[in-house]
Amino acid sequence: MTDRELLYVKTVMEEHSLNKASQKLFISQPALSQAIQRIEVTIGTPLFYRTPTGLIPTEAGKKYYQMAQEILRSYRCFIHELTTPPHQDEGAFLFATTTSLAASIFYSLYPSFLNSYPGIKATIHEGPHYQMLDILREGYVNMVILYSSVASRLAEFQYHLLVKDSIIVVANPEMLSFHSAHHAPGYRYPVIDPMELSEHPYIKNSSINPTAEFIDSALSQNGLNLEDNIYLQIGRTCTVVQLASATVGFGFSPSLQISSQVPEKCKFMLPHGFFPPYNLYALLPAGNTWNASERIFIDYVRESLKDSVLFG
After folding, report:
1. Residues paired with residue 252 on neighbouring β-strands, in sequence order
2. The CATH homologous superfamily of the domain defined by 83-164+279-308
3. Which of 17, 137, 173, 193 could form a disulfide with 180 if both were Cys (CB 3.0 to 4.6 A apart)?
4. How far is C-alpha 242 from the geometric centre of its chain's CA atoms?
5. What is the full DSSP assignment across 116-149?
6. pLDDT in tens, 128-168
């Protein structure tokens, strides 16, 4: 049994199709089919039922898949440990984050990290939130940095707080005036009456992602229906922010995802408690630990973002 064989079965199991799996693995379908058959002959039992609609795992196939996940995750962690020299300021690590966070935080933060720790190298994967959780679950990376509410934490992961954050309102005061806006102790930006939002055009994040779902849930729980106010629907938070700061509409965004190019005058807050905490976390699989380079990076991220707390 090799790591390649484990990966073959794992990929076929997830794709439910030899054709799709072969494309993902960059091998021919006949070669993949023969490899699966050899594995089944070796272990003495079929792993899949072949049906007209695709491959269905047998009970043996399900057990093999679980084993493959565990072994591949342990193998990748072992390889990462081998790439980390004993010197504290040298090593390598691999982490994943969403495309929005990569663009808004890590593309600016990582160069300064490299300047401080030139001997530590990182590989960054980026993509949709749910995809990043999948590659952490499957062992392709040991760490993912994502937003999460307390209510949406998953028991299979460890959540290490990096910085407290929340959702803020973005709007250009020269095009959209909030009459209730006022400065209040403990708030970084002017506070507005939530009900005043229903008087203005709304630029909605229409993506199927946890941030959009979190915002919709908070609006609903506070009895604020903005559906009739929708001015534009956009699929990315960064685009919502850009348009809200340059048009007559307002939008919502986690504060850390707002580009530094957005003027401070365009940032507003709702009263504390309207949005539950929506914080930035580093996630590890349950039972895993940091390697030395990961620990240095996480401490650096915490220190770099510590002044981003919005309340207090």
Report:
1. 169
2. Periplasmic binding protein-like II (3.40.190.10)
3. 193
4. 21
5. H-TTEEEEEEEE-HHHHHHHHHTTS-SEEEEEE-
6. 888 899 888 888 888 999 999 988 899 999 999 999 898 99
